[in-house]
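Input sequence (444 aa), recorded before submission:
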Amino acid sequence: MSSAMPKRLTTRADAHPKRAWIALSVLVFSQSLLAAPPTERVRAVRVWPAPEYTRVTLESGEALRYHLISVKNPDRLVLDLEGVDFSSVRQGFADKMSASDPYIGNLRVGRFKPGVVRVVLDLKTEVKPQIFTLAPIGEYGHRLVLDIYPTQPPDPILALLQKPQLKMEQSLGKSLDEELEEHKRETEQNGKTPRSTRDPGGAVSRLVTIAIDAGHGGEDPGAKGRRGTYEKTVTMTIARKLKALIDTEPNMRALLIRDGDYFLDLKARVEKAQVVNANVFVSIHADSFVKPDARGSSVFALSERGATSTAAQELAKRENQADLIGGANRRRKDPYLLMTLTDLKLTAQINDSLKLGRAVLGELGDVTSLHRGRVEQAGFAVLKAPQIPSVLVETAFISNPEEEKRLTDEAYQEKLARAILRGVKSYIAKNPPLLAPATLAAAR
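Predicted structure, token format:
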């Protein structure tokens, strides 16, 4: 009995140091975890280069803490991220640079100091950066957005001069000099300008400028078909085909509001059309619906008193959310889109838009089925350009597998573009554009 006791005591004594060592290790490890600052992983990094601006987006589960500074000689942007996982930032920026990016030449990611990851963007030119955060929406988590704008923004009017052999004074079959001479001759003969070439303000007909707006883009992909087709891709393709067709017309020219895969807020789309004094504004989209059997093309105009149907109201609500999904900078003052329809005096514009819409819808009906046989109306923010007849064309339902397939077919895209052009031309023939009195006086 006595000989067995020491053996058991020895066995327990041997075990105590192991348990103590394990307990000590766990304690030290736990304390190290408590001492280490929490790090947030960056889920994704997306870079959208474009002539308008380059956007850099970092997406994460929690809002990122950041600090941005600009450095000269050479021009650089330095973005410090606090409490983020270094490897996720490095991996996120890997292979994101494009040699064609007009503003970012190169980038580097490194550990600046404990708890801070530094991203350095080498610039190709002087820029005006804007940085802001976006709350989670849709499929996106928290986003930190860095927009890199040039100090000298690209002039949208120059884009209109890219059409070969296009002269600014070109008008509907006549040069501006010829038209002014005819205007002067008729005034001398009759004492006033004929009613057919004049509106109450004394304007005469001129060259037609069509603003083509490819819906969505960049951070805002729009609707997605079951085959994986994004609305932003379809709208851009059809818009480019429509521009090519318009630019072959001797008395017409086209401006692409968005000419690449990047985000433009609704206000910027309207402003670009106004800058070039567009005569017509066409916004191209591809609708989606919860039921996959919904089909057909639709045309929409702005409404003065609310939507003409529940479906139109819901569509306008979704389209107007593009700014939230795509990431509009809310720090940028936006009084224009906040104005009421009464303030904008859009009654005449809406009437002209309905005429344009009916002409386009009629031509679309010759090449595809129509979802509704009349022009619908709702409060689409992108259609709020005063004095510019504006329509939104839903080319098809991308949520319908059959129509999604057709939307990716080049021949079908061409048919849609030609139908839209015929509708625009039909409207222009009955409602020729007018030369503003200021322009007429300057030409004299």
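Checked by second reader. Residues 4-35 form the longest helix (32 residues).
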